[in-house]
Structures are given as C-alpha cells and as structure tokens.
Specification:
alpha+beta, single chain, 14% strand, 7-stranded mixed beta barrel
Amino acid sequence: MSRRAANCSIKMEKLEASVVIEHIESDKSGNQTDSQDEGLSQKSECRRSTQEKLVKINVPLPNLNHQQIDTGATHLLILADTSGSMSGNPITQVKSALKDILDGALDQPSMVTNLILFNNEACTVNLDRTNYLSQVEKIKSGGGTNFSAAFEHVGNEMRKVRKKTDKKIEKTVIVFLTDGVDARLYGTKTVEQKWFQSLMASVENSAGRSSITIHAVGFSKEHHYEFLKKLTEQGTGEGMFRYCEPGDGPTVLRDKLQELFDFVLSNATSSMNVMVSIPGTNQILEGGTAKNSAIYSGEITKDEGSGKSELGVDLWMLISDPDPTNLSVAVEMTIMNKQGKPEKTFVPCEVTTTQRQIVRAEEKVVWNLKVLQRNSDVLLADIGKAICEKNVKENLSNRVDKLQDRLSQVPLFRKEFNKELREILKGHLDDIKKKIDQMRNVLAEFARGNTQSVQMLARAHDMRYQAKFSKSRRQRILDKRVAKNMPHLQSAQAQLDQIQLDREEIQRMSRSSTDFFVCTLSLNNIKDILLDSDKDDAIGFGLAVRRQEHVLDAPTLVELHSISGTLVSRCAMLDALEYKINCEGQLRAHGGFDFSQPLGVTTIGQSREPINAWLPLYCTKQHWERVKVLLKPSLGYFCTLDPLGYDFQQMDVMFMILGSMVGELSDTKSNDQQLKMIFCFLRTCQACVQEFSLENKLTEAVRLFLTSPEDRFKHKLPNLYTMIGYVLSLPANTITQILDGEENLRKFWLAMVTECLRRAASRNLREINSNISHGLIDLILHGKKEKDLLEESPALTEYLKLMLTESNNKDLPLTKVFDPREGLTIDDSMTKKYDEKLDQALEVWAQAELDIIRNKNQASKVNAARKAVEKWQHEGRAAVVVDPTAETESGVDDPCSLTQSKLQHLAMMLQIFSNQAKPNIQSFLGCMAFIKMWLGQSLDIDEMDKNDGLPPEKWIVMAKEAVKRVYSCANDQLKRFLNTDKDKEEDTLVVQGSVNDEVSLVSNSEETQTAGCNQSKDKGQGQNVNEDNDDVDDDNDGESGDESDDMNDDMDNYYLASKPRKIVKDVKKHISLPVILTLIDPDLDVMQLTRLLMCQIILCHSNSKARAAVSSKQYIDFALKVDYKEELRKLDSHLIKMREEAIKDVMESVQNMRANYCMLHTPSMWAFIGYLMCTYKERGQGFSDLVSTIVDDNCQETYPLLSDKVRVMFLGKYNDHAVLAKGNVWIPDAKLSKKFATALGEEVWNDIEISVRSCVQLHVYRESDIPNRHGHCNSNPYIPNELRKKLGMPLL
C-alpha cells in the first residue's frame, strides 16, 4: 500500500483484482499468427509480433461507501458562436449539433448543463427539457466575435451554478462550437496567450478543486484550427477537437459528435481511474508506444442480482513471460486524510488470479478485427499529431497502405459465422474503412497544402478543382496519388533550381524559331521565357477538352473538343485561368467533370478556337530540361484538375493527342502551321519515350496489337489514337522491325479499322437481345424477300433516305427479330388430350423400367406397353407443324450471293455504325499517309535540334505530298465505285460517312466530278463515352456521338450505287469504308469482308462478348488471311442449327404440356410415375410448369391423388425407387411452401414437408458451405419454425 494510503484515517478494505490475458495461438516457432501491426509506431515494431496480448482487469468493489466511489456531478457548459462569420451553413450545423448534445445531456441526473451564446457579447440561454428545441431554433447569427467576453462569462456562470446547486461539482466540461475566427487574434500571439490565462484564472477560481476539460468543434472551411487546438489544451486534461465539414449533413454531424458526447457522458457517470504498471521487458501499449505504466479510465458496472459493483478495464500489452507475476494494479479512490478532508489517491490492488485464454480458430477473425480497430485509432492519432507538427513522413502513407491490405484479407464468410456475427463483423469493417478513407484524405490535403512551399505547383494548386468524385473508390485513388506524388514533386522543384542555361546558345537561336515559338497571350518568345521568365515557365499549346470522372481510371478517354494551333506559355495560361475562375467560376473556366455544363473556356486562340487545357512542347534541348520536370504535374492537372493527381497511365495522353493531331490531316487541311505543330509534338513524345524509359512498354503494346485481338479491345487500349501515337513515337529502328513490309502494315490497318467499327457499333447494339442480333445477321446474309421490297422504287439513294429519316431516334432502325420458331403451328387439342386406356401401358412401362416386372412371360405385355408409349410420344411431336411457306431464306438462298436487298440493309447498318466511329473512319487516311511517310523516309528526329526545334522544310513538303497522294488514291477509288458499268452484274456498295463537300452520282455516260473533302472538326478526336459508363472495362462500352445531331443529318449520307438509273445531284461526299479497305489491300474482297465484319460486330459489340469469342476461338482476326465466304456460310449454318434446335424445343414443350395434363388427371399412381419418368429426367422448365399448375390460385379443378403425386415430385422416389432427379429431394423455399399449403391444406402439406426435410443430406447447399444470400448453408440449413416445432428444434 502506498505511503499516502497508509496515512489515511479511514481503513480501506483490501481490493483484489483478477486478470485475464487473451492471445492467439502461436506457431511452432513461438510467433503469433496473423499479427496485425500496421498502426503502431516504430519504437515497438521489433517485438510486438510475438508478444501481443489483450489484458482484461476486473476489480470487485465490495462495501465501498458512496463517498469513496462517487464521481460527483459534472458541469457542462456549451458555448455556441453566433457571430456573422458563422452565418449560413455553419450556424445551421451548430443548431443541429446543439439539439443532439442537449437531447442527451438534459436527461443526465449527474450533469448540470448550461448553453451560452456569444458574439460581441455573451449570454446564457434559459432552457430545460421542455423548451430546448424551440430555444435552439431561435438562434440567429450576426455581429462580431469576442472570445474575451465568452471566457469571462464562463467563469461567472460557473460561480452561479455552484452557489445554486446542492450537487458537488467534481468535473467541469466546456464545449466550444465555433469557427475560432476573431480578428483580434491575427498578427500576434500575445493576445491569444492573455486570453487563455484569463480564461483559466476565471475558471480555476470558480471550479475550486474540480477537474476542467475543454473541447472544441470547428465549423466552416475558414475555422482557426491552431487557436481551437490550443484551446483544448488549456484544461487540467487535454480535450478533443472535432471538425465539421460544410457538406456534413445531420446524420454525419451526429456521428462525429457522438464520440465527444460519449466521452463527456462517461466522465459524468460512474468511472474510476486505474493505474497499471509492469516493470522490466513487459510493456503496456498505449497510443502506439510501449511504456511500463499507464492510467486508464475504468467503467463501474453493477450486478442487478447481487447489487455488487465491479470496475473493469481492457488494455493491450507486450508480454513475453508465460506467467507475468509483476503486474501491479491501483485504483484511484476518494478517502479522508488525517485532517478529515477528502483526498484522491491510488489504492493498490492484490492480483489474486491470472488466467490465460487462447483465442479459438473460429474467434481468430474477431481478434484480428480488434487489433485492426486499435491500430486504426493509433494511426489516425499519429497522422493527426504529425500534421499538427507539420512533420508528415512518407512512412505514414505506407502504414495506411499496409492497414488497407490487412483489412482486405479479413474473411467475412466462413461456415462457423452465422448471419448475426457477419453483420457485426461487417459493421467493424465499414468503420475501419471510413477511418482509412479519412486518413488518406487528410494526408492528401496536407500534401496539397505543402504546394505553397513548391513554386512550380503553388499557383496550379490554388486553382485546383475541389470537387468530390461520385465514387469513393476514385476519390481514394486521387488522395493516394496526391500523398505519393508530393515528395517527388518537391524534389522536382530542386531540379528546376539547378538547371543551368547556356545563355549564348539561346541568344543564337534562329529568327524563324523565335518567331514560331511565341506565346500568343504574353507575346514572349522562347528566348524571353528561358532567359527572363520564371523557372517554372515553358512554351506549350492549347487544347479544349471535356473530362468525365472515369479519366481517373482511363486518362486517354478525356474527350478532345479541339486541338489548337496556338502556342501559349505556362504562366500565361495560369494567368488566364486564374482570371477566368475569379470572374466566372471554375466550371466556366475549365468545365470540371460535369458534362451537363457548356464547354469551359479559359481563353481563345488565334483562330477564335476555345482553349481550356495546356500541354508543353519539347522545342529545344535546354527547353526540354525544364519541360521534363513540369510534364508530370501538367499531365496531372490536364487529367484530374489537380497538379498532384499524376499517374503513370497519364503519359498515354501524350500519344493519344499525337494520334489525334495526325488524324486531322486531309488533302485540304494540311497547312504549314499544322504540320509544324505535329512534328514539334512528335519530338516531345519521342523525348518522353527516351526520358521515362517507355520504349519496351510501347514496343510490346504494338506487337500485341498486331498479333492478339484481345489486346485491341477497350479494356487494354481505351483510345485507338493512342496506338497511332505509339507507332510514331518509337525509335525508327524499333518500329521498322515491327511494321517491316507491306504485309505488316496491312495487318496493322485492318486491325485498326475493324476494331474501330466494332466499338462504334456498341452504342446502337447495347440493348439488343440475341434474337434481334441474329435477325440483323439474317438480313445481311439473306436480305428480305422480293415481295417485301417497294415495287418501282425511286433511285435507291432516295429510297434509303426516306426509309431512314422515318426513324424517331438515332438508334438502329433495323430491329428485325430472328424468330427461329417462325412458321411453326401447334395443334392445341393435342396438349389437353387424356386417354384412360394409355394409363395401363404407362403402368406396365414404368414397372418394367424400374425392374419390378422380371417375369419373362410378361415380355409381350412389356413390349406392347413400350410401343404404346413411343406412339404417344410421336403424337406429341406431330402436334408441331412446320409451314414451309413461312421458312426463312436460310438453307435456300446462298449467303455469299449479293442482291439488292442484302446491300440495302448492309448499307443502312454500316452507315449508322460509321457515323458513331471514334476515331472517324476518314481520319485513318491522314494517319496512313503520315505513318507511311515517316517509316518510309527514315527521318532523323535529331535534325529538329539542329534546326532550333523546327522541322526541316523538306519534311513539311513530304508530309503534304504523302497526304495528297493517299487522298488522290481514295478519290480515284471512289470514282471507280460510283461509275459502275451498266452491264456489270455485281452490285457495288458505297457507304458515306460525315458530310462535307459535294459529289455527283452519274451513269457511265457522264463524268463524275469530285472535290476535296475535309474532315469534320467537331466533337473532338478523342474517345467519348456515355456519362453512365463509369468503368473502362464495361460491357456496354460504346462511345456516344453528339446527342444533338439530327437523325436526318445522320441518314442523308447513305449512298448505294447499283445500276443507277438517273443522276442524283447535290449529294455530299465522304470517303467510305470500302474505299479505306481497298487502299489497305487492293486484293481484298471488300464486299464479303464488309458483310462478315458487320456480322461479327453485331455478335461481339461489347467487350465481354468479344473476349468470350476470343476465349472460345470463335473471334475472327481480320488482320489475318480469312476465307470470308466460308465464314459467312458458317454463320448461316449456325442460324439453320438454331432453327432446328428451336423446333426441337417446341416439340419438347408440347410433349411436356401433354404429359403434365395426363399426370394431373390420371387416377393411377403407377401411370403418374410412367408419365413422369418418360417425360422428365430432372426438374426443369416443364416440371416447373407442372408445379405452377398445381399451385395456381385460379384453378378450380380437382386432381385425383394430388397429395401423393406432390410427395413423389418433392422426394424424387416412389416406394423407394428413384423416379425423378436420381431420387434427390427438392427443398422448397418459404414462398413456395406457403402456396402448396394453400393448395393442399396445412395438415397435408406439413406432413409432406416433414418427409422432405427428413431426407435432407449434406451438400444440399454449396459444397464449400459458403452461405447463400439468405445466410443458409449445410451447417445452417433453412428450416421453417412450423417444422422446427414438430421436430423439437429451437425456433428461429
């Protein structure tokens, strides 16, 4: 016993303590399995994995008088800031918080509660249980903030309460609800210190010897965190600080304040301090650190039966001794000293029992969750402390990652877990997940705050789009990136500072270079930017983009509205962005992630084009030294509107934009400025490949694109333009090895074009079912019958226009359903035909099948029965009549022949898909020309460095000639398609894309006039997806076009040349898919390839369907040599097989209906068994129809022996013979049980159900014993309470 306790005048009864040490079972090496140590500090890391124990201490409190355990009353003072700075959302949140706090506090008999409102002055609100809600609603904000008045009023109120109340005030708890904003606090810490001193002087004079705790709750984004945190440290013990975010609703706010109120409430009720000590190597874990002594607040509980009180406390310890005997426990008690005055002291306890408990295997998950809960709390406290001290280290982020990894390994589904336990575990898991999200968010915000010390990020950070992603997973990803990127970007600032420029070399730059590399906004040229501007300034170019949230997962899906030819410096772009944000807000400046808003415009370019994004250019070697440091934060801002949001996948954005720039080339749109920009950006991309070691990655991607169809799909390559950028950015010697020769180029472009169309089709085909898709294929293979076509139709062009413009939307107008049952008729009289004479044959047949009849003398009888059964089955099949006049053309018409009807429907579908293509089909011409020129001429990119960053003039000339040459070939091919020989038997298909210049369609006697054609510069060259398409690897992954386009605009561009009868003037020209395919390979059978391609597109339009086809080796790789006609015939054979199977299914369905009717009406059980056995092997669809007929509420018919028949249906046996489903029982669900109880009667059904349940054996549920969605499994089967009563089982 301590000296202080020994000198007390009152004799204390000896206190005894019992200790329970709980731990998990160690492995053979002595180590505990699954030790969870993510949240603890580094000091205890080396030993905790082998010694971690949960210690539970219980101290009985016998015969203690009230004074010894009475904690006295608690005085709760709530100070609510009602100044003008709290107006709006903060004051609304304060009111909500007050209602929750007062609702719990006013019910506590051991608590005195006061509400103080303060602004310029402070006043106490008179409230009680009856009027507190109305009093809170009256609170309004206004005036200034005067903490000095609030502090003084606190002391006055404490003195008043102590004079009025007869309760002994042992604890004083002060809670501030404020933003902490007082103008007099800024600029000096002297005022702040004086206020704290006056507060504590006033409080201590009023409180006497009672303890004082001050808590603070901060509201609004501008709350004074440092002041409020220091305020919580002014009491005799440290209080809590909580921050309520502006977006927190009442529920979230209540959850955040619950911990604070629980803390206040626990101090206001029965609790006592317990001091635990253990010397030597054994240590106590508190707050993530290991120590030899710690004080805990224990809870006093009272046994209602015996009336005895008990004090309990749980703590974590590192114990290496098998039986620690040096553990000491002391309880803080109030006793009388020699002067007769009460005094608090720690009274030692004798540890009488020490018990060990090893956690059983089934309780191991619960143990791990306890450890995770503790570690998450410790880590959260460590992060908070590190941020307050502004000393956040990278290991904190690593500890959060480790905690997340441990959490993901916690199993929820085991056979020993019942439903209730799983719900408890899930609640704990959700709680820890929220804490992890909170930690990531805090670390990310701290990292963003550090950008103010990094010059290159500071301004961009100020203009960061502070919007929450709708999916918490994406928000976690961004927060994780921010915390990860900050250390690297801080070192990047040092790299900028260390760059040494060769000023003489910069001064020697050519006039043409300085005239080209000029910022349009600031008029500074590259010399000015390198020599006189900030170190984080650089030359780049402007773009206009739209972003959706999924760019965080797939950056290349950012939609390019336009690529500007205007050069802009980084600082000038930031100036323009800052000005636009200040004037019109962020959404008007850059669009955010909201597609519902108009395109955000930061500034405009030389041609009045919109600009809202920026990327840097290589320009020169010295300029590149600066650009390569700025590139990652620039890409981070480009994709996520946060300079710290960079991810390595965003480097693909550079290649995607390069491919998009090349795709804009055409014979009428290839000017010098455009080509110079392309070559400059190509130089930038090649420098990225070298600087960031991307060559191997790009090489592998191009190789797989050529050889593997699955590596062309959207989940691997979200934007096809990225592959164009890959090809151009690889070193010349590398890419020429991959695309060496015409054959490899042919494979590459066939793969590119066919994959582009497959993706385009997904938007139109998203909602179609298999019957419609097979119907469309049937149209391509066989068309429509001649009788269905318009007689004496006008020119096919006009006919197609009329047909397509009648559609009310842009979806596929051709919705023919392939009905393989077309032309089938059923004789309904056969489905309800019952012959009593047949029952005898079925009886004999069933007994023979079950080997009951063995007498050879009855062989003739058995044979006669079998013949009767076969005849009955044949009659059922004969009830289905196939009408030959209604059959489809499958099997009659040659699917490889070409007719007018087939070409019409092919043209319709191809036109719709082509209009949705991203990239645009015609853009491949520019890409084909530029890549062929680049690879064929073996140009050396280093020549641009010798020319001060500009491409040699001969490169510009070669690029122009290459593009014109390709377009000239395309136009010649188009003329050949349009000028079809009248005597030629084969029809020719020309499908048009988007609209630009005009072309005339004439007969052979007239001359075809052609004009140049521009690529439409609309909705951007990048990929666009629907707003509800969150993930890249989505089955419905079509890229949507511009929804505002008119249906007529889409459909006016169909043209079909098939022996044209007259001139159609003023039609508009666009290079068609057949033209592109002919340019890729003149020897291709373009017509049959197009037909086969459209069939595969319809079958494999989604990523999942395409991947499934690749896995089953049914996907056709058009980059390889393919026998198109043979594949078309295979498709036709598939349709024929589907029809044959459909006829078979119909016949089986009719036979099932006949059998069901006979089974229900036969008065013989053996006849019923016969019908059942010859019709059903398993409980399939026909059997389900039989069940539905029995339980049908509207059925008024009475069936003989129904209960016995139902018993057989569920048991699968009759007289111990397996007659259905190999004799396996069928367990009905609750809903079906109720229906059978209604149909058969409760008593009859209960008897059947008991028979069924009694036959339940293992593996009725999943063999793995994983519970189903209702929580039932082999070890916990579903048995209704009615049956449990009869079986004597406990009720649910």
